[in-house]
Amino acid sequence: MTSSQLINAVETADSSDALLDAVEALAAACLPEAIPTLIEVLGFNNPGAAVAAVDGLITIGEPAVMPILEQLDGYNYGARAWAVRALSGIGDPRGLDILLDAAGSDFALSVRRAAARGLGAIRWHELPSEAQSQGQKRAFETLSQACQDPEWIVRYGAVVGLQGLQTATAKQQPEWWTSGIECLETMIQQDEVLAVQARAKLALSCLLD
Amino acid sequence: MATSEQFDNTGQPPEELTVEQAIRLTAGCANANLQHEELGRRYYAAWWLGRFKVSEPAAVDALIAALEDDSDRTEDGGYPLRRNAARALGKLGDQRAVEPLIQCLESDDVYVREAAAQSLEMLNDPRSIQPLLKLLEGGVEAATTVPGKPHLVQPYTSILEALGTIGATEAIGEIEPFTQHRVRRVQFSALRAMYQLTQNEIYGQRLIEALQENELQLRRSVLMDLGAIGYLPAAKAVSETLAENSLKLISLKGILEHHLNHVDSNPISPEAVEVMNLMDSLL
């Protein structure tokens, strides 16, 4: 199928299953011209199709970042969560401000948890070194706050993000690095949710190995 | 669960009620002429006590008293306040509620019976086994839809799930036939209970197959069942189910924690790492 046929199949799908199949096919084709359609699917309230669209956007990667950012304000609550997931998966530093903001203060827990994870997967080397260390420090501050989030799944996401950030900065060991390790140790001891404790333990064992 | 955690961490009830008001409202007064608006507030107050886990004795007393309320009635004879009071009592964890809730299993309001069964599951007291079992009398043949109503004659899902959680191995013979009930949701509850009571993989595997159901609502419900029983072999299938990531994460959390509670936690087992990897991919 040509790209316009693939796009057309998404736009004319008349059932939830047909939509899913069409989005999967479009996502697998990895075409930059599919970006607007994949972004549109994020707002369809069809979780299966949205997962496929996010996967597609992540595979396309860098070219999808600006289109996602440009439309972010227009998204409904569900679509915003999926867009943040896509940005988290792409790891492009241009998404950093959005992820920092979302992890710290979005009212939807699914957005906070996706953003927290994403903060651990930023491709820092794409930034000049000063912006890098500033961004990492902000990411650390946001993540250590997210470790106190009232929702267990956001804390879980924050642990995953923190593990990624600590790993990325293990060589440079910025001044906050030890605090990051302490933060994980505290969660192992004090988090009220067993799954979060276990994830912090896993993070720590990966970092100290 | 998540919402109550939110409250616990922020420290203040975000609603306009105070604990005293909620207790007073729930207790009500013996005023036969309660205004409609007042009934609404009592209904809300009973829910509120459960939502914010106000477990002080006065709150439990007020809720137990509300289980016998006659002022709040629906057009077809239901008891909204009793339903909410019964639901709240499960969340408060005070075993004094067990006998009064067992009484509620004889209510002629099916939703009161349902709420009571769910709360008895949470209170997890073996005294409820026989009274719950009594509601399964007549077996699958008797478990039909009430004419003109959307529900079955008994709240079977809640009854079966309660028996499974409470560990009613003596009820296995009565529960097993329900794994073939024509209503899917009832089947799943029976499978869930049978797995809890026998640890037989057959039941867990049938729940895994049920993750392929066509209806999203059914898949969601199976996700919760697998999380509730902590069925480890389901982890991968759960992560691949067509449903919201939030629900899959809750299901996997149940599986992970059940596993962690049954193995030595040092070092982290490879199974636990695998479940966490699946969870990470769903964030």
Note the overall shape of chain A: elongated
Oligomeric state of the chains in view: heterodimer
Low-confidence stretches of chain B: 1-14, 30-34
Q: Kindly state the number of beta strands of chain A.
A: 0
Structural class estimated from helices and strands of chain B: mainly alpha
Provide a count of the helices of chain A: 12
Distance between the termini of chain B: 19 Å
Please tell me the overall pLDDT of chain B. Answer: 90
Greatest interface: A-B, 28 and 26 residues
What fraction of the residues of chain A are assigned to beta strands by DSSP? Answer: under 5%
Largest sheet of chain B: none
Helix-strand string of chain B: HHHHHHHHHHHHHHHHH
- Total count of strands of chain B: 0
**Helical residue percent band of chain A:** over 70%
Separation, N- and C-terminal Cα atoms of chain A: 48 Å
Gyration radius of chain B (Cα, Å) is: 20 Å
Notes on the protein architecture:
The complex is a heterodimer of chains A (209) and B (283). By secondary structure, chain A is mostly helical. Helix content of chain A is 73%, strand content 0%. Chain A has twelve helices and no strands. In chain A, helix 1 runs antiparallel to helix 2, helix 4 (47-60) runs parallel beside helix 6 (77-90) and helix 7 (96-105) crosses helix 8 (109-119). The model of chain A has no long low-confidence stretch (mean pLDDT 92). Chain B has helices spanning 2-10, 19-27, 36-51, 57-66, 80-92, 98-104, 110-123, 129-134, 139-142, 156-166, 172-175, 184-198, 201-210, 216-229, 235-240, 245-260, 270-282. The longest helix of chain B is centred in the first third of the chain and has 16 residues, at 36-51. The A-B interface holds A 20, 47-48, 51, 88, 109-110, 113-114, 116-117, 148, 150-153, 156-157, 160, 192-195, 198-199, 201-202, 205 and B 2, 5-6, 8-10, 242-246, 249, 253, 256-257, 260-261, 265, 267-268, 272-273, 276, 279-280, 283.
